[in-house]
Specification:
The strands form two sheets. A four-stranded antiparallel beta sheet has the order 4-3-6-7, with no helix packed on it. Strands 1-2-5 form a three-stranded antiparallel beta sheet, with no helix packed on it. The protein folds into two domains: about 35 residues; about 80 residues, Immunoglobulins (Immunoglobulin-like, Sandwich), CATH 2.60.40.10. By secondary structure, the chain is of the alpha+beta class. The chain contains two helices and seven strands; from the N terminus they run ααβββββββ.
Length: about 140
Amino acid sequence: MSDALESTKAQKAIIDSLSQEISNLKNTITQISLNRDNSEEYNSELRHDNQINSAKLYQNYPNPFRESTIIRYNLSASTTSATLNIYNMNGKQLKSINLPQKGEGSVTIRKRTLKAGMYLYSIIADGEIIDTKQFVLTK
């Protein structure tokens, strides 16, 4: 019975230690957040991140496809330049399509422009990769 009691005491000591560590980490995070909120550099980065995060790349439909597929996207009004890039599975860029339309838009990919296989596609807006997805073109 004393082994069980000792084990319970050891577990309680570990739990207490971890609880204190969590509390210390929460305090540290709060301090960092307060310091960052006052930093113009941080606020500038945050605005940039929000702008990039407001862009969205959707999964193509249909996927897999035989003849054509539609890739939908959404770009924020503040986006200055954006492209949809298509890569083979080795990472070689095969196509780059300019996306001049802000807001909701779509691009149609047709079979005749690619061979059957698996591909990756990414949207790059203002020099930042927004998202990458993949599609499969069947024979």
